[in-house]
Amino acid sequence: MENNIHPIIKETMIEESKKNEEYSIREGMGIHHHLHRFREGGTRITKEIRERVVGYIAAAFGLVAGLAWNEFIKQLIETLFPIKKDTLWAKGVYALVMTILLVIITLIITKFLSNEEKKQQ
User: Fold this and answer.
1) Looking at the domain assignment, is residue 73 inside a domain?
2) Residue range 62-98, pLDDT digits in tens
3) Domain count within the chain
4) pTM score, whole prediction
């Protein structure tokens, strides 16, 4: 198991262990207390890593969803406005539609979040 620990995390855990050992000796605490504190520090670091990995995975799925919506909106514009897709007009229409959607969605989300904050207060 020790070989699977990232070197920076391992170094941090060793430094924390040394600090705990010095404290234990000063305070007259036994090795069991020292081992408990060492494990506790490793658990805290592991929890942080898990939280970040979950955040990165969520962001990746968000990107995939955004790309899917991008394709959908492009196809919708091509269907509603049958213009050649590589023309300046087609790109302008796409940019305009995306800007309008972004503004509307941002306003809705901002209003929703401000209502939630008011409820919590």
Assistant:
1) no
2) 899 989 988 888 888 778 777 676 778 777 878 888 8
3) 2
4) 0.44
